[in-house]
Amino acid sequence: MSKTKIQIRFSDIDVMGHVNNAIYLNYFEQARMEFFSQFIPKDWDWYKNGLLLAKNEIEYFFPIALNDEIYIETKCIKIGNKSFDLEYNLFKGDKLCCKGKSVLVCFDYTIKQTINIPTEWLEHLNTLKIA
Fold it and tell me: Residues 92, 129, 39, 106: is their CA dihedral positive or negative?
């Protein structure tokens, strides 16, 4: 599991005074990259061993405002042969404000085909996986 502090930008706020619903996907992406930084080297060849985002789900519980301090806990909840699922829990303090999930499929952009999860990732994903 990883924990990512999120900075809310003024441009994230909609006319109702809270974070726009579409912005949460950006927050999840930021948390996902922080999660990956735990085990994927900076010089990783993303064209040969890349990812496709196949699915996103979001459940909103409480609105987030501009000056709120928020963070996201990211964890792997499912591992297949070619794909894995990440779960995101967005908190303001100890209050769960939003929950999300992504399905990520491993993909080789050079041959335009799905691939098995790289072996370099499997050990870390299994270690970081929470059932």
Answer: negative
